[in-house]
Amino acid sequence: SLALQITGVILLAVGVWGKLTLGTYISLIAENSTNAPYVLIGTGTTIIVFGLFGCFATCRGSPWMLKLYAMFLSLVFLAELVAGISGFVFRHEIKDTFLRTYTEAIQNYNKNDERSQAVDNVQESLSCCGIQSYTNWSTSPYFFKHGIPTSCCMNSSDCNTQDLRNMTVAATKVNQKGCYDLVTSFMETNMGIIAGVAFGIAFSQV
């Protein structure tokens, strides 16, 4: 039971880390985002609680309680497999969906809604701009009114709206790298970690 509780803490920690680290990217990339981090959080919490139940059942020597505990362990194993498979499948769907969803996000960008804020978050945190490059913003309705978003700027103190509305000047002010390769690589690596931890703990429990 103690060993099981340790795995519960690990799953809970990985689930919370996955949600905090990847939440923005998942909401931006997927129309139907993966539930892998939530599955790990729920499973980890449940394991910790039922680990205490297992200790209590062992101390009492109650057959029905031990059978219930065994049933619970089977359900935990299945939940971990679901999280692992979900993370693994989503990892390979990223490239297929990101190009389309990110293009839509740029075309509908308004700086205020959740997806627009996610675009800003990605561009700032990864120091990138647009899909393949900053020029992708030239077709966005937002560009014609406000220019390239300030989240693309290399130095926010040396970046103003007038500069960002001129593609020639903006080229010297914004990040040159596109976000496509950076985001897909980042997501594949981190979703691979989540899937690997879920599979590893599941089979170690077997």
UniProtKB/TrEMBL annotation:
Transmembrane in keyword set: yes
Primary location: membrane
CDD domains according to UniProt: TM4SF2_6_like_LEL
Membrane topology: Multi-pass membrane protein
Cysteine-cysteine disulfides: C129-C152
Pfam families: Tetraspanin
Gene3D superfamilies: Tetraspanin
UniProt-listed InterPro entries: Tetraspanin/Peripherin, Tetraspanin_animals, Tetraspanin_CS, Tetraspanin_EC2_sf, TSN6/7_LEL
Transmembrane segments: 9-30, 36-56, 68-90
Keywords for the protein's UniProt record, in alphabetical order: Disulfide bond, Glycoprotein, Membrane, Transmembrane, Transmembrane helix
Recorded family membership: Belongs to the tetraspanin (TM4SF) family.
Matches recorded under PANTHER family: TETRASPANIN (PTHR19282), TETRASPANIN-7 (PTHR19282:SF257)
Function: May be involved in cell proliferation and cell motility.
UniProt protein name: Tetraspanin
Organism: Hemiprocne comata
Lineage summary: Eukaryota, Metazoa, Chordata, Craniata, Vertebrata
